[in-house]
Write a structure and sequence with these properties.
Layout lengths: L1 E2 L1 E2 L20 E7 L8 H13 L5 E3 L14 H4 L6 H13 L2 E10 L5 E8 L5 E6 L10 H4 L8 E4 L2 E7 L6 H9 L4 E5 L7 H15 L2 E5 L4 E2 L2 E2 L5 E3 L5 E4 L5 E7 L3 H8 L15 H9 L2
Parallel strand pairs: 1-15, 3-4, 4-5, 9-10, 10-11
Antiparallel strand pairs: 2-16, 3-16, 5-6, 6-7, 8-9, 11-14, 12-13, 14-15
Helix pairs in contact: 1-3
Length: about 300
């Protein structure tokens, strides 16, 4: 397992010359497990994260869910919402272009043209282009105002990149395996999950991230928020899991860079060696309990 390294603004990381295509054939992946302290403004946090990104040398970088606003800062959602052409995503696109990496930009409160708000994740390519975007489908309503304030997305998919075919998901989506199966069926061999998962359900996070990787035979790269936010301890625990369910790297509860190298050929190799996905029986009829009781009573 690749150990995570603490991340602080006072201990910058020296980055080598950025590249576009992994020369080693392996994908250098970094989860920037950020904290969202209550006393830090969104402007200051964006500035801090941009500096961290400029010190990052990787092929794929993943940020957590709603890191700029802070997931539990519900009163700030509408005021801090931006269109996809807004300053935050524009700045992230510029950094991805400068550093020549693929960037899963965490998520942001997106204000659509019709005024509706979404929890939106973007995959940015090394040229600064938005390659793919995903609006969170499963909004969280348990001790959360997200489901009341935001509009759920209605589409999901995967996009082919120089690093492989990448799908996107967000936090609570982990509890809905059918979404990940759909992403796998769409060709994804890597799914990046951006999250703001609380420490109270850390064990669920650990089980679900491994399960989604194993059952779909994919690499899963899940980046979570760390530290304490809005009176809640966040789980941290950002994790990189391979298609066998092996944890390649895992963070603790503090801010950190969680780094691992991925073999992009592994998902196909695992599927060829252990072709479980070809054994699905999709035409099975589910018999309701009431119908079964009626059949028994008629005998």
């Amino acid at each position: 397992m690749t150990a995570s390294t603490p991340m602080t603004a006072s201990t910058p990381t020296t980055a080598s010359t950025p590249t576009t295509v992994p020369s080693s054939g392996r994908v250098r992946t970094v989860c920037l497990q950020l904290d969202c302290p209550d006393g830090e403004s969104a402007t200051d946090r964006v500035r801090r994260v941009l500096a961290e990104l400029r010190r990052t040398d990787a092929d794929l970088v993943v940020l957590p869910e709603l890191w700029a606003t802070g997931y539990f800062q519900f009163d700030a959602y509408r005021a801090q919402a931006e269109p996809l052409t807004g300053p935050t995503l524009t700045a992230l696109r510029e950094v991805a272009r400068e550093r020549r990496f693929h960037l899963v930009a965490g998520s942001m409160v997106e204000r659509a043209d019709d005024g509706r708000l979404y929890n939106t994740t973007a995959l940015i390519g090394p040229g600064g282009d938005i390659l793919h975007m995903y609006r969170k489908i499963h909004l969280f309503g348990y001790e959360s105002d997200e489901a009341r304030l935001l509009t759920p997305g209605t589409t999901a998919g995967a996009v082919r990149t120089e690093l492989g075919c990448i799908g996107l998901a967000t936090c609570y989506d982990l509890r809905f395996p059918e979404l990940f199966r759909m992403l796998g069926d769409a060709g994804a061999d890597l799914v990046a999950v951006v999250s703001a998962w609380p420490a109270a359900r850390l064990e669920h996070w650990r089980v679900l991230t491994r399960a989604r990787a194993i059952e779909n035979q994919i690499h899963l790269v899940a980046c979570n928020v760390a530290g304490r936010h809005a009176g809640r301890d966040m789980a941290g625990g950002s994790v990189v899991v391979d298609p066998w369910g092996v944890v390649l790297a895992e963070g603790g509860q503090d801010p950190a860079r969680v780094c691992a190298e991925l073999d992009p050929a592994l998902p196909a190799a695992v599927r060829a060696e252990f072709p479980v996905l070809t054994h699905r029986r999709l035409g099975v009829t589910i018999v309701a309990e009431a119908a079964r009781r009626g059949t028994r009573n008629s005998r």
